[in-house]
User: Fold these one by one.
Assistant:
Number 1:
Amino acid sequence: MKIFSGIQPTGAKHLGNYSGGFRQYAATQEQGEAYFCVVDLHSITTPHDPEDLRARTLDLAALMFATGLDPERSTVFVQSHVTAHAEAAWLLAAVTSYGQLGRMTQFKEKAERQEFVSAGLFTYPILMAGDILLYQTDIVPIGDDQRQHLELARELAERFNTRFGETFIVPKGVY
Ligand code: LTN
């Protein structure tokens, strides 16, 4: 069984992240082949400082190891180091409808808070679908706020498979 999850390096990490996130990551790595990704490409969809992002990316990796992710057992990596993530997002964009993205509630909320709304913020869920589908992921341990994004990833996998033949595993979320 393959397990994949992505964690953004931006945003303060607190006890809630531990009890509702990191603890589960460490537990799920026992259940199969696990991939944990520091999703820096997602963090550049809103205003950020590149130097700060670099430091936070390393800090998050340290936190992941400190909370029990075992590099002997799991693959822990940085999203931008694997260029296939950005490529997968482009290919999947061709099977995503504009309307589907427009219905994402997290986009609507985040867009309201920004004076500059990047196209990347709009297409964010496609990059996330690419993260997951690239690894033929079975299980995604994830926060409840990501339910709609995971549903989109499932729909994109199904649509791609219908149009071009069985290619992707349709992943299941564990909330
Ligand atoms: N959008 C997620 C982070 C994320 C993710 C992923 C989670 C990016 N790619 C792939 C699971 C699988 C968030 O904000 N928590």
Number 2:
Amino acid sequence: MSVATGAVTDALRELHTRYSGVGEGALADYIPPLTHADPGAFGLALISMDGHRYGVGEADVPFTVQSVSKPFVYALALSLLGLDEVCRWVNAEPSGEAFNAISLERGTGRPANAMVNAGAIVTTALVPDTPRAPRFGRILDCLSRFAGRRLDVDEEVYASEAATGDRNRALAYLIRSTGPLPVDPVAAVETYFRQCAVRVTALDLAAMAATLAHGGVNPLTGDRVVPEPVAAQVLAVMATCGMYDASGDWLLRVGLPAKSGVSGGLIAAGPARFGLAAYSPLLDAAGTSVRGRLAIGKLSERLGLHLMHNPALAGSTVTLVTTAAGLPAAPAGARERARRERVAVAAAQGALDFTAAERVLYALDEAGTGRTGAVVLDLVRVTDIDTVARAMLRGGLARLDADGRRTAVADPDGRLYAPGEETGAPRCFASREEAVAWCAETAVG
Ligand code: GLN
């Protein structure tokens, strides 16, 4: 067992031991086969962005996905129709109501959000149903790609919910009677029951959550399941609406996008960090797994995962702000020294995003020794520049150039300007020394 496996598994095992004795809550019984679940079952699973899988307890035990399917079918609808079109039919406001409430907007009849049953039924109805690609086939394919393996349906649970699901059917009729929907929620409710009866394990759910956390790419299979903006949209709605009338309290205390289901599944996603899932079928009054809620809440607290926490400021983006005269290798000759004093140098490291780029630009300003000096930006130790940061840095360098400053970048891997690209202003070099030498040569001594 590797060291990482030990540390992560130990953390999950400790939570499992801590909460496995909690006997509060009740099995959902309005879908009769759900009462056959083992009330003692308790599994926890975590999947990292590198696709490392960790599970303890009943992480491999199958159960029906129920409402945990909702964010993933919402993702499918968003990727097929786009956010604006989906929002015309399903709003994205927390309802503050139970999962099966009649949460319909006055006037439009639009459901409050896609995480409550009313919104989930409409979302399912929005998935196109064509002879070549039937609606349920698309949904099962999509859920399977999120999980990274072929999933199937628990026919007994499906038949039971289809036989007892009058409240959902009533909701669908009500929606059809009030809203000018382009689709038929009454026809879709049977598909919705089937989607709720898809069989998963806690490890499957962790992979599904990890795919959302990983920008829509399944970290186990490398499959791009949904576009990155869709993954972010789904996580946003999970954060505000995923726990029904307990969503505000959950975001306050746990601080992670999450979704619960009545069979005892619970997922939480740490964006760009991991997917987490719990399975334990004893539910609280809001229909959330009691042990799952406790375990995921404690994990978030222990590991400082709350999204609103001040994110660890990436240590030092800017590693150097000086003039070329202050560099260790600077030659001592007076004339050369004077020239190098007119060359400002700032060096950055790591992955550059908006926040990091702001620091780098500020450092370039600070490093300046006057309006006529040259500027060297050293990106040798930069590992990545995202599109926002790239535009900011290019813009900053262009402004310096427009101010009459000579600009050079040390960019051996072509991260800021593609190799051979016409930069407009800055000269690109493979090393800081070459960039400095070029600037110093031409600096007015
Ligand atoms: N199939 C269930 C229902 O529609 C799902 C509800 C849930 O998991 N909260 O009632």
